Amino acid sequence: MKRHRISYWYLGAVLLAAGCTGDNPTADSASTGVEPMTSVQPSAAIAAAIAEPRRPADDVARDAARNPQAVLEFSGIAPGMHVLDMFAGGGYYTELAAYVVGGEGKVVAYNNTGYSMVAAKAIESRYANGRLAGVEQLVSENNELELPTAAFDLVLFILSYHDAYYLDGERGWERIDIPKMLAEVFDAVKPGGRVIVADHVAQAGMPREQVKALHRIDPELIKADFLAAGFSLDGESDVLRNPDDDFAVIAMAPHVRGKTDRALLRFVR
Q1: Number of domains in the chain
Q2: Distance, CA of 9 to CA of 180 (rounded, Å)
Q3: pLDDT digit string (tens) for 88-116?
Q4: What pTM was estimated for this model as a whole?
Q5: Segments forming the whole domain that contains residue 57
């Protein structure tokens, strides 16, 4: 595994060829622009993060559909925590997490090169001119991810876990060894730490072979994967559910985008 400090204008096709390695940054109040918040109650810290005026307007516009206050409260995130955002994409939740944990916490945003290319413009914009300088960007190819042991209080898979079942050889997306990936995540979570999975719901019993086509996943399949990895199911929430969703269409279809029925699960090591 190679860790990359990313020069954010450098993403896209060049990212695939370069691999500029460096030391992990320390997330302090000077680099994040966020004061330490260890005395702030978690729900208040979350509300302050959502209200943070530096958030991009596009993120704010997505809040109504994503319900970040409820999701983050369910996650148990709090000031001072160390958080891993898996398949962080453009970083909507990465930024919120950085504001919540504050200068005494740390956020690592992981993407494979596929995610980095698809979200290149959003990533460049989010980190341009030193924004979120305390967030560590970690880029690793599928099946090559290595994480520090017992390093994280919280891991997020937000609308991304289904992509562990994705496969597109033409675009360089190799089949992910899911047990290997989850074993790596398990070892990286502190004892008692949590993993939060929010994802587009598929019709109950939908075979795993159909996950790629619809970008949806049966919550029971998520549970089975994480239980097999050694995690315990710690809670479920209905705050993102939508019984009127059309499970037969791809999750990114225009008429359901942002309105899908989404499961929200919490696992604990």
Answers
A1: 1
A2: 32
A3: 999 999 999 999 999 999 999 999 988 88
A4: 0.84
A5: 8-268
